[in-house]
Specification:
By secondary structure, this protein is an alpha/beta fold. It has 10 helices and 10 strands. Helix content is 33%, strand content 14%. Strands 1-2-5-6-7-8-9-10 form an 8-stranded mixed β-sheet. The protein has a two-stranded parallel sheet with strand order 3-4. Helix 4 packs parallel to helix 5 (126-139) and helix 5 (126-139) packs parallel to helix 6 (156-164). The chain has one domain: Aldolase class I (TIM Barrel), CATH 3.20.20.
């Protein structure tokens, strides 16, 4: 069954012109085509394409990508996300090995593994995450493994399943401030996301780094943003990303503000002052963009 596309009441007839700091020239490096060919060869999905990430040209030109497992159909219909909301297909048992082969072929030092929300599965796809982590580690023992997961509806057995595979970084995005969460995120709640990060931190039997990300420009105030940062620190979140929300299509939530780079710099300093171990803050920052800038093997 196909979920009908939802046009948000606040969506505009056309998207505003991007400010100069958000315009990018398309790369011409041959490495871009090489990455595209490799992903096609292994028949893999990437969040780069499915979520219409504005950085995927740059990342692919550098030979990096964030692998999206569990298919390209999501059971949720978030107001910001370009991933299709459709009835999911069965999990592909060969996908973990294909991700591992691609990561090895790309000679990655840091791999990001994310997934669509699979609320149709009892474990939310947690075992598939674990299998992929284990396959990647077997072929690339030195690689830093980061997972970006849905909330698993806070099912403890799903959380434990991923933790047992021992990723180095566990990322779950808050996406926005408390007031805007019901509009921006489908089925997710602000409290559940905080609780997930807290359970992950407390449940890990090893030094695991937790991470979250926020999109700016959806109508949040500076006070709300600071409160959300403090809430993340209260549950021990180590790493924070702050980036500009961009409307994927006219059916998605409109941009309320293009936040200038100097304000991102100030927000980044605010987050560091609150005690985050690593902060990436800028208009083009995305949750997986330059994820390898944080080296978990050297952070202590």
């Amino acid at each position: 069954m196909t979920h009908p596309a939802t046009t948000h009441p606040s969506a505009r007839a056309s998207r505003p012109r991007l400010p100069s700091w958000l315009r990018r020239a398309l790369p011409t490096e041959p490495s871009f085509a090489k990455t595209r060919s490799l992903l096609d060869t292994w028949q893999l999905n990437t969040v780069c394409e499915s979520a219409k990430c504005p950085n995927h040209w740059e990342c692919w030109a550098k030979g990096t990508a964030s692998f999206m497992i569990g298919g390209d159909r999501c059971t949720r219909a978030c107001g910001f996300c370009a991933v299709s909301t459709l009835r999911p297909q069965a999990l592909d048992a060969s996908e973990p090995q294909r991700v591992a082969e691609a990561a090895r072929a790309m000679k990655l030092r840091h791999v990001v593994i994310t997934a669509v929300a699979r609320d149709d599965l009892q474990d939310g796809g947690a075992e598939h995450f674990a299998q992929t982590i284990n396959a990647v580690r077997q072929l690339s023992p030195e690689i830093i493994i980061e997972v970006l997961t849905p909330d698993f509806l806070l099912r403890q057995h799903a959380i434990d399943c991923v933790l047992d595979a021992r990723p180095h970084v566990f990322n779950h995005n808050m996406e926005t401030v408390r007031r805007l969460t019901p509009t921006v995120r489908s089925r997710a709640t602000y409290e559940r996301s905080l609780a997930l990060l807290d359970r992950v931190r407390q449940g890990a039997a090893y030094r695991l780094y937790t991470k979250s990300g926020l999109m700016l420009g959806l109508g949040e105030s500076e006070e709300e943003l600071e409160t959300t940062m403090k809430d993340l620190r209260e549950v021990g979140c180590d790493i924070l990303t702050l980036g500009q929300y961009l409307q994927p299509t006219l059916k998605h939530l409109p941009v309320q503000e293009f936040v200038p780079p100097e304000r991102f710099d100030r927000y980044g300093d605010m987050a560091r002052d609150l005690g985050f171990l690593h902060v990436a803050s800028g208009p083009m920052v995305r949750s997986s963009y330059h994820a390898d800038a944080f080296n978990a093997s050297e952070a202590g």
